[in-house]
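Is this the right way to post structure tokens for a design question? Let me know if I should format differently. Anyway, here goes:
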């Protein structure tokens, strides 16, 4: 058989075999199926465009767009690996090949299932890898400082292999491919990818933080700004450090939109006011998650700020102030919560905004030691700024008053007080004991004698401040620590005053049980001691202890000069010869005799235990204890004028011509002690869960708080400093005075008091987001305070908020706009409240001492019961916009808000027969609105130099809307709480000039002229609205210039749109009537007074003759004295230099050194008024209100 026939025969036999036919059919079906599957996979198209997407996100998109399931082996495939996806309608296999191949991954597709696995190496590849792998030694350095960076994560790209740098910033990676790459990541630094080499030195640059990446601490949680619906502002530790100033308020002034800092009066106002008075709306201060112990911002324990008195009328007072109890060097961040969505979770006082202070914590890195010191100095204010009269003008004023009978001859009665040296010469001529020529000669000597140099020499000094801070921080795998010690000393311009503070801060964090349990503890202890002496302040004032411009304080040899006050020198000398103590007064001597010493111990302890229930749920139990112990002693030495005056006045002469002392001889020693305790406990559950493209943040919990304030005062007479003992005194025992009448010491001690407040709160907050673009938030809080008695309907209140956010920049239609880094819209609504602090629904009594006649205990009703008193509430609507452009070189954040206030507390008339002429009621309503923005940009940005500029603007106003509020006030320059006007209004008279007798005239409501001596009384209708007393427009502008390691910061602030009344002449020191005693105001403006008919055409200052209180008060309260208070101030110029590594490189233990110099309080750049008046530091006819002179600071920071 031929071969071809044999083949044909075999083929025919095989084909006809049934088994062969089945096999061929099966092969055909399988081939067809595989071709269909392949065709199906090829037919699938993928569109996915996202930078820094993860493999997991890509696999999710594949499932959504194709219906194919994707499986991978955990531990072998890193699904968090970052890729840059840019696929548009691409075949599935192309997508997989492009993404997986570079990562050494492969895949198979079976029945609409994609299986991803690690690509297996061939035998040849494995052999080659053994010989081509290398070991890598490397070091990570900070690109700016050159310092090693510990704990950097070093990952072999495409694998799960990773190591960490040690404390010296070095790492070792064994057996890695020589053609591979490594990825270096660390918090706060930009991620870097480098090709492998045996020896690597990698520099990491500090990450430029985008606006949406800023982390905000609300006290209950930490959230990214990019996911919030509320209005926040954040100040970081770097922002605080850029303003080297001991006063925290000055460091923040002009930096936060919507927040106005009144540095002189130590107040903070967030947006529009929330009370009728406008002065009782401080924000809530939160420190490390809990409210501070009280609402005061800064105490006035030394009465000094910027070399000037904080409150010239207060002797040495001391408060448990919040910002005094925290050192700026210990602050990590300050978050200001401004709208309801941000602050309503805090409930009480949230209507006024919330300031959340977070102290520094340790970081997981090598131990770091930091030392910083700041020294500042400022000269006393310039006397020339007072615009005082010359000595000749002052004596001329005395002569005019003398000629018109204002003064009484002290020789007419031994009880008459002393007169000035100039007045004494005038009386000598009148008595005939001196000639006019002698008088004129003596007055000429006084005209050329000035005590300004002596006031500066003996009463004032350069203000100095020194601040030292030493901290140690670091941490390991399961713990962190931050420990700091601080010392501050403040010496103000007034002699015999000082303040110093010692503080210790410790924040520890420890993790247990594989980081399932975290325990945080914090301790802050502070000891403050201050001394206040008001002698220097009094010498510069126009009061009883002030000095006429020609009165000297010391003689040519520097010995203090004592001047007569109570009696003439002749009478005082006669009494001294009888055994009385000297009765003269010397300001120099008083610097040693009247000191108020305040010592305060403040401690804050907090602890929190956090337990992770799952990787998305945890429970926290936390608590805080605060205690302030304040001990104040006020010693009036026996040699002090006050004690000598008390002893002499209480001493009489009996028939035997001997002295009888009614008051024990010795000093007067007054002590006061107070204790302020605060306990807070909180339980809180947090949930942070992702569901594919959905995310939920939730927190809920409850807290309870108790605040207790106790204290008392005791006065001792006849106190002996050496023996520390005093005499037993019955304050009701009568004694005879030098004047012959009887009196008693009376009760000078306050009662022992105890005030306890408790509140219970339940709270919850939730945020839902979809795709990281759309956010919905809501919060609720239920507050229950014991202040309002037993009726829960009055004492408890629910508060809420709701908000929306849209991150527009993540939408596809903006993806291609590379110049837009961030763009979002926010809107929120919510409520906040204030608990009444000046009244309760139950009666409050003050238990006093025993009645001297009945010996029974006494009590006084201090606050009558008011069962209708309840919370003040506010509802706020906020709309906001945040944007970033050009790689974050330009950013903008803007907000508009509307606020409605309900149940505001108002003083209303009350039946005075019950002992109170007025009581507070929830009778006021108001509304407010405003807008604010901050824009920050880098006009110049280069590697070695840049310019950063930040400008913020705010507008805030309010309007009383309750028509029930009417006013009967008739005083010019007053504030009236009436509907249709802002609560910080000022009403004035319409000035009509002086009449031909030099008396004030004003226009009535009907246009008629009202004379100060006329029969027509002034009514409320005669007043006109003059404007606002607080600035509706305010803000700041900060510019930072950097060249290599040198930086320059210039900061200015502005305030516009408000008014002030001139106070260079005031009613208390303006001569009026027919008699006058004491020191006359020395304002130069008083020299322009009316003197004769016709002067009314050239002056508005009333004359002296026939002047009355009405004439003076109408002049001072008239629109002629109303001025525009708008101003722009240069607040700071700072120059800082970071020493390069080339200078400190030989000292291996030194990481960085920064030195700097600054000047603050540099004065006005511009003022709206044309009278040369600084509206914040008006002269008051004395030297006690001088504008602060420039302060010069020098700072050093060393990191080890």
């Amino acid at each position: 058989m031929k071969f071809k026939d044999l083949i044909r025969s075999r083929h025919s036999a095989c084909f006809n075999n049934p088994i062969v036919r089945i096999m061929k059919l099966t092969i055909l079906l399988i081939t067809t199926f595989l071709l269909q599957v392949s065709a199906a996979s090829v037919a699938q198209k993928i569109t996915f465009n996202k930078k820094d997407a993860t493999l997991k996100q890509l696999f999710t998109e594949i499932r959504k767009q194709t219906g194919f399931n994707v499986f991978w082996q955990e531990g072998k495939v890193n699904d968090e690996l970052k890729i840059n996806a840019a696929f548009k309608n691409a075949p599935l296999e192309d997508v997989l090949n492009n993404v997986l191949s570079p990562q050494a991954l492969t895949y198979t597709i079976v029945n609409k299932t994609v299986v991803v696995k690690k690509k297996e190496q061939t035998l040849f590849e494995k052999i080659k890898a053994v010989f081509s792998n290398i070991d890598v030694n490397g070091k990570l350095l900070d690109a700016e400082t050159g310092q090693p960076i510990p704990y950097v994560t070093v990952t072999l790209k495409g694998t799960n292999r990773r190591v960490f740098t040690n404390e010296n910033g070095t790492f070792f990676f064994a057996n890695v491919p020589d053609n591979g790459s490594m990825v270096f990541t660390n918090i706060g630094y930009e991620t870097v990818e480098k090709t492998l080499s045996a020896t690597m030195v990698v520099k990491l640059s500090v990450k430029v933080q985008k606006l949406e990446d800023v982390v905000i601490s609300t006290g209950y949680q930490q959230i990214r700004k990019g996911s919030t619906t509320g209005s926040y502002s954040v100040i970081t530790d770097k922002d605080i450090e850029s303003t080297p100033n001991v006063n925290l308020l000055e460091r923040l002034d002009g930096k936060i939109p919507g927040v106005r800092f009144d540095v002189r009066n130590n107040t903070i106002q967030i947006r529009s006011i929330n009370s009728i008075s406008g002065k009782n709306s401080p924000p809530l201060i939160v420190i490390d998650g809990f409210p501070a112990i009280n609402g005061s911002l800064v105490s006035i324990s030394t009465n000094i700020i910027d070399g000037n008195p904080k409150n010239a009328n207060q002797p040495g007072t001391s408060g448990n102030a919040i910002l005094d109890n925290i050192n700026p060097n210990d602050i990590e961040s300050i978050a200001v919560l401004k709208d309801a969505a941000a602050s309503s979770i805090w409930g009480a006082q949230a209507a006024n905004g919330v300031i959340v202070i977070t102290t520094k914590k340790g970081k997981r890195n090598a131990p770091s030691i930091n030392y910083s010191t700041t020294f500042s100095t400022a000269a006393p204010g310039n006397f020339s700024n007072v615009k005082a009269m010359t000595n000749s003008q002052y004596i001329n004023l005395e002569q005019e008053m003398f000629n018109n009978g204002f003064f009484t001859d002290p020789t007419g009665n031994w009880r008459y007080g002393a007169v000035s040296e100039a007045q004494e010469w005038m009386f000598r001529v009148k008595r005939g004991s001196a000639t006019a020529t002698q008088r004129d000669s003596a007055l000429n000597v006084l005209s050329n004698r000035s005590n300004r140099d002596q006031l500066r020499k003996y009463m004032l000094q350069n203000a100095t401040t020194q601040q030292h801070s030493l901290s140690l921080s670091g941490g390991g795998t399961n713990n962190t620590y931050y420990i700091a010690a601080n010392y501050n000393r403040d010496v103000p311009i007034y002699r015999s005053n000082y303040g110093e503070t010692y503080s210790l801060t410790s924040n520890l964090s420890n993790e247990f049980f594989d980081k399932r349990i975290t325990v945080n503890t914090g301790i802050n202890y502070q000891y403050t001691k201050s001394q206040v002496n008001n002698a220097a302040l009094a010498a510069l004032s126009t009061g009883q202890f002030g000095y006429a411009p020609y009165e000297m304080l010391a003689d040519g040899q520097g010995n203090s000069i004592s001047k007569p006050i109570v009696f003439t020198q002749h009478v005082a000398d006669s009494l001294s010869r009888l055994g009385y103590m000297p009765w003269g007064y010397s300001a120099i001597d008083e610097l040693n005799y009247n000191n108020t010493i305040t010592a305060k111990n403040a401690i804050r302890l907090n602890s929190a235990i956090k337990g992770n229930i799952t990787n998305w749920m945890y429970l926290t139990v936390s608590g805080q204890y605060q205690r302030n112990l304040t001990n104040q002693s006020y010693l009036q030495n026996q040699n002090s004028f006050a004690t000598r005056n008390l002893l002499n006045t209480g001493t009489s002469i009996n028939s035997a011509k001997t002295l009888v002392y009614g008051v024990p001889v010795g000093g007067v020693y007054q002590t006061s002690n107070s204790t302020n305790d605060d306990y807070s406990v909180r339980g809180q559950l947090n949930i942070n869960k992702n569901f594919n493209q959905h995310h939920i943040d939730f927190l809920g919990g409850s807290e309870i708080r108790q605040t207790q304030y106790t204290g008392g005062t005791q006065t001792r007479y006849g106190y002996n400093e050496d023996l520390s003992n005093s005499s037993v005194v019955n304050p009701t025992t009568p004694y005879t005075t030098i004047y012959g009448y009887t009196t008693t010491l009376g009760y000078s001690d306050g009662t022992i008091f105890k005030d306890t407040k408790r509140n219970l709160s339940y709270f919850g907050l939730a945020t839902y987001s979809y795709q990281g673009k759309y956010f919905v938030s809501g919060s609720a809080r239920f507050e229950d305070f014991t202040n309002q008695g037993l009726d829960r309907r009055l004492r408890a209140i629910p508060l809420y908020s709701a908000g929306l956010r849209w991150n527009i920049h993540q939408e596809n239609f903006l993806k291609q706009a590379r110049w837009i880094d961030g763009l979002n819209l926010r809107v929120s609504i919510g409520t906040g409240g204030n608990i009444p602090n000046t009244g309760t629904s139950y009666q409050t009594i003050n238990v006093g001492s025993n009645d001297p006649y009945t010996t029974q205990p006494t009590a006084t009703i201090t606050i009558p019961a008011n069962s209708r008193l309840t919370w003040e509430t506010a509802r706020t609507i906020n709309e906001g916009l945040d944007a970033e452009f050009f790689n974050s070189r330009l950013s903008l954040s803007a907000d508009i808000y509307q606020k409605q206030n309900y149940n505001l507390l108002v003083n209303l008339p009350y039946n005075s027969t019950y002992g109170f002429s007025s009581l507070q009621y929830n009778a006021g309503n108001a509304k407010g609105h405003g807008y604010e923005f901050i824009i920050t940009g880098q006009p110049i940005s280069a590697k070695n130099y840049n310019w950063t500029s930040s400008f913020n603007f705010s507008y805030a106003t309010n309007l009383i809307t309750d028509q029930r509020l009417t006013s009967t006030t008739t005083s010019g320059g007053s504030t009236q709480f009436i509907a249709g006007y802002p609560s910080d209004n000022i009403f004035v008279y319409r000035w009509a000039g002086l009449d031909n007798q030099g008396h004030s005239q004003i226009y009535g409501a009907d246009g008629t002229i009202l004379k100060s001596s006329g029969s027509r009384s002034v009514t409320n209708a005669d007043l006109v609205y003059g404007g606002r007393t607080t600035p509706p427009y305010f803000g700041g502008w900060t510019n930072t210039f950097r060249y290599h390691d040198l930086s320059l910061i210039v900061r200015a602030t502005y305030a516009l749109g408000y008014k002030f009344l001139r106070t260079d002449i005031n009613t208390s020191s303006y001569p009026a009537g027919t008699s006058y005693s004491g020191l006359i105001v020395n304002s130069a403006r008083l020299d322009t007074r009316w003197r004769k008919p016709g002067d009314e055409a050239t002056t508005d200052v009333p004359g002296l003759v026939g002047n009355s209180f009405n004439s003076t008060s109408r002049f001072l309260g008239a629109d002629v004295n109303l001025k525009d208070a708008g101003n722009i101030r240069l607040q700071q110029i700072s120059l800082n230099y970071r020493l390069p590594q080339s200078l400190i490189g030989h000292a291996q233990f030194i990481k960085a050194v920064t030195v700097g110099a600054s000047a603050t309080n540099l004065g006005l750049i511009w003022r709206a008024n044309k009278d040369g008046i600084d509206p914040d530091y008006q002269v008051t006819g004395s030297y006690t209100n001088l504008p602060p002179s420039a302060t010069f600071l020098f700072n050093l920071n060393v990191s080890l």
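Format looks fine. Someone answered above. Worth noting: The radius of gyration is 39 Å. Residues 219-363 form a domain with the Ferric Hydroxamate Uptake Protein; Chain A, domain 1 fold (CATH 2.170.130.10).
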